[in-house]
Write a structure and sequence with these properties.
The protein has 472 residues and is of the alpha/beta class. It is 36% helix and 21% strand. Strands 3-4-5-2-1-6-7-10-11 form a 9-stranded mixed sheet, sandwiched between helices. Strands 14-13-12-15-16-17 form a 6-stranded parallel sheet, with helices on both faces. Strand 4 and strand 5 form a beta hairpin. The longest helix has 17 residues. The protein is globular and about 65 Å long. The protein starts with a strand and ends in an 11-residue tail after the last helix. The site of adenosine-5'-diphosphate (ADP) has 18 residues, from helix 1, strand 12, strand 13 and helix 12.
Length: 472
């Protein structure tokens, strides 16, 4: 099969969060399953080209018709960790991808609908069996693909990584790429994708159930229910070569489930680097985008409680909006001078590896969480997760087996859970070691989900219905 992923992110060259990890990890796992895989990305000016091999231009003047005008694009080809990647450089379109970042611009819908049209125009010359599109950014490829001749129309699978981002725009944005719409009417890109795709997945079985409900369906529950026959949840994996405490090049020393002793040395190293006190204390960590979804208030409550209880806290958080910028810089200033806490308010891939490996307890108190990757990475690195019971966190963390969990999104609930975890760490080392070991021995590799996707592609190609909920 030739599977083409079209997406806004791919780790490690263009990553904001989990979407980038998934496109990278799933593509590599499909390659291991002997499939032909191509990824198509915008050629952002902020791509990390250090990880791209054999980069070359294959067509310097590839034309598309956007908003009634012909615009030329340079098509580049390269390889990332063995995966073929096509980059589309928009040369005559408002510097759409020369913004220094990936998202967050007023014209994001125009940028990604331009990219979707260019990707579709390019791949209509290729032999593609399955076109796998991701989130609202590339969802319009589903209705666009319906315009292709039946003879070379691929099957389209849309994965929803986060229902909270839907790409709301006006009909005129669709008209620009040749889709039918009413100029001033509101359009929802993700919904258009759901309606037109051959199959829709989301990134955990539990989130698949949740988004059919009024509580978490964010106005798309009815659309999803109507299309339930072509909707399923497949739990994400993590890339086992990127996230491996036995070989991780970012770690000063290595450890494994059977030889966990050296994790203590990594913890020491992390504390030294962040100038934390060398006192024996539990190290509680969180690595996240600081947005409402991730429960920043709960993170703050847990941080202060950890300090009260004599623990240490490291937060590696990307601040992406003004409110969290103000809140967390204020917190950082108020704690300046403490050798029990470190707030690193930026995105830092290299430091994230050291934090996962040095942490004792790892917090993921999300208000909602489609899958969540950090709890799985934390477990692989011997950090015990403490999570809120929502979405994919429920599919991966089990209280008393490999972690701790709490229900209500309140400070009291996270304090109770945190107090319990810190007591186990201090007074019940054997129980703690059991949690660490069980987490490290979980299998969250991409092998199982890649096989589930492969089965889904095959069924979709044969027009067979797929079961609603895939299991872990
Ligand atoms: P989301 O996609 O909603 O941000 P996920 O848990 O699915 O959440 O994926 C987050 C990914 O981004 C993980 O690989 C995590 O390590 C990484 N990440 C998040 N914030 C940061 C940060 N500030 N620095 C480095 N890596 C981060």
């Amino acid at each position: 099969m030739h599977i083409v992923h079209v997406a806004a992110e791919m780790a490690p060259i263009a990553k904001v969060g989990g979407l980038g990890d998934v496109v990278h990890g799933l593509s590599r796992a499909l390659l291991s399953q002997k499939q032909a895989v191509t990824v198509i990305l915008p050629k952002y000016d902020c791509l990390n080209l250090n990880y791209v091999e054999h980069l070359e231009i294959v067509n310097p003047t590839f034309p598309i018709t956007f908003d009634g005008k012909v615009r030329r694009n340079a098509i580049w080809k390269g390889s990332v960790d063995g995966v073929s990647v096509i980059f589309i450089e928009a040369q005559e379109a408002e510097e759409y991808f020369d913004r220094g970042g990936i998202y967050g611009y007023a014209d994001d819908v125009a940028r990604f609908s331009y990219f979707s049209l260019a990707a579709l125009t390019y791949l209509s010359s290729l032999n593609v069996d399955v076109l796998h599109i991701h989130d609202w950014h590339t969802a319009l490829l589903a209705p666009l693909a319906q315009q292709l001749d039946l003879s070379n129309r691929p099957k389209v699978v849309l994965t929803i990584h986060n229902l909270a981002y839907q790409g709301i725009c006006r009909g005129e944005d669709l008209l620009k790429i040749g889709l039918k719409a009413t100029k001033d009417k509101e359009v929802n890109c993700l919904k258009e994708g759901i309606l037109a795709a051959d199959h829709v997945t989301t990134v955990s079985p539990n989130y698949a159930r949740e988004i059919l409900t009024t509580e978490l369906g964010l106005n798309l529950q009815q659309t999803l229910r109507t299309h339930q026959h072509k909707f399923s949840g497949i739990l994400n994996g993590i890339d086992y070569s990127t996230w491996n405490p036995e070989t991780d090049p970012f770690l000063p020393t290595h450890f494994s489930a059977s030889h966990p002793q050296k994790k203590a040395l990594v913890k020491q190293e992390l504390k030294k680097r962040l100038m934390l006190s060398s006192d024996e204390a539990p190290l509680v960590c969180s690595i996240t985008r600081l947005v409402t979804q991730k429960g920043p208030e709960l993170i703050k409550a847990a941080l202060l409680r950890t300090l009260e209880r004599g623990g240490q806290f490291v937060l590696l958080g990307s601040v992406l909006d003004e409110a969290s910028h103000a809140q967390f810089y204020q917190l950082k200033r108020s704690l300046a001078g403490s050798r029990f806490v470190h707030l690193e308010l930026t995105y830092n891939e290299e430091l994230s590896h050291l934090v996962f490996a040095g942490a004792d307890l790892f917090l993921v108190p999300s208000l909602f969480e489609p899958c969540g990757l950090t709890q799985m990475i934390a477990m692989r690195y011997g950090a015990v997760p403490l999570v809120r019971e929502t979405g994919g966190l429920v599919d991966t963390v089990e209280q008393g087996k490999n972690g701790f969990s709490f229900g209500p999104p309140t400070a009291e609930a996270i304090w109770d859970s945190l107090d319990h975890a810190l007591t186990v760490w201090k007074d019940k080392p054997a129980e703690w070691q059991m949690l660490v070991k069980n987490g490290m021995e979980e299998n969250f590799s991409w092998e199982r989900p890649a096989k589930a996707y492969l089965q889904l592609y095959l069924k979709t190609l044969k027009n067979q219905p797929s079961p609603f909920f895939s299991s872990r």
